[in-house]
Amino acid sequence: MKLAMIGFGQAGGKIVDKFVGYDAEHGSNIVRAAVAVNTAKADLMGLDNIPEDQRVLIGQSRVKGHGVGADNELGAEIAEEDMDEVQGAIDSIPVHEVDAFLVVAGLGGGTGSGGAPVISKHLKRIYTEPVYGLGILPGSDEGGIYTLNAARSFQTFVREVDNLMVFDNDAWRKTGESVQGGYDQINEEIVQRFGLLFGAGEVEQGGEVAESVVDSSEIINTLSGGGVSTVGYASEEVENASGGNGGLLSRLTGGEEEDELDTAHTTNRITSLVRKAALGRLTLPCEIEGAERALLVMAGPPKYLNRKGIERGRKWLEEQTGSMEVRGGDYPVPSANFVASVILLSGVNNVPRIKELQQVAIEAQENIEDIQEESEENLDELVNDDDDELESLF
Ligand code: GDP
């Protein structure tokens, strides 16, 4: 699936930048164009892979390249005001060659949190291609303002995109790690999962392509209908000494019995990976029961993929989610030394983490209002003399 990616803010820019690197390394052909937008000049300069002319600094007249702090209302305002500059970069994208837009942002900050919903609304108005979001939720230790920003941005972002895929930093942070080192690892995880998912729709036809290979339209259909999505992933290392020759060696050396054993083993591996992916850590932890649609992608060397395994995995997912719309297929990666299962669960509704985020956000909002009120009173008390005997100058 070919995407035009737009990274808004620091996290958004870094993640899109990593996608570009992943794409070049794996030849997955998913990033047709990449744009980074920010109010902070230093963040744009820190990127490695996005071409310089595709890095857009907005809000210069208002914040002089220093960012918006964590003020997402200002982030949204600036995005609105400087949309022409963003559109200038988008104009150079051959939109007829992309299947969809993907807007990526951390929802807890200012620029991405405010700007991502604004750019999504704009893209949806102008183009017919679907506009998807990838929103990153802050860790719960980041504090009230980040939680409040994320809760408000999430609500708006979901409304403005065709589907919002969510990654929750809170579920992925490891204790005892530097924030930066932690993010690097988390960003790898994000790019790996979504790279395999979107790469599935980009396999060249012909050659070793199995009949059940996933197509872009299946990803699009799974995401259509809107709402919130989460992605599960599990992988297992396999030997791939034949370098992708589709088990030629085993066929030459092994008898029929061995082949049958192999088939059973391959099928079991696939079904076990499907369970692990669905029941393990999701990008946004939630109850999978009730997910409206799902897509199962099995990636790996073709000799380790089989129809029976995917069919069983698909059926199991149908039972677990209760959905009638569970798609599944292969993503043959001849050179891989792993078999991986990637599961996209779309239209998830039972997400305790979002409810918790909203609760904490409401408390933070009330606290902020109280503190503001108190601060006005305190200042008044400090500045004015008790009996109001002094007069101010003017
Ligand atoms: P902005 O530049 O104002 O949009 O704000 P940032 O992108 O710097 O931060 C917004 C939120 O994104 C933070 O609260 C973090 O939760 C998260 N974040 C920042 N950098 C990264 C990153 O590199 N990876 C991930 N996964 N999350 C990040």
Automatic annotation (TrEMBL):
It is found in: Cytoplasm. InterPro entries: CetZ, CetZ_C, FtsZ/CetZ, Tubulin/FtsZ-like_C, Tubulin/FtsZ_GTPase_sf, Tubulin_CS, Tubulin_FtsZ_GTPase. GO terms for molecular function: GTP binding. Residues 374-394 are annotated as: Disordered. Residues 2-205 form the Tubulin/FtsZ GTPase domain. Its main location: cytoplasm. Gene3D superfamilies: Tubulin/FtsZ, C-terminal domain (3.30.1330.20), Tubulin/FtsZ, GTPase domain (3.40.50.1440). Coiled coil: none annotated. GO terms for biological process: regulation of cell shape. PROSITE patterns: TUBULIN. Belongs to the CetZ family. This is Tubulin-like protein CetZ. It comes from Halolamina salina.
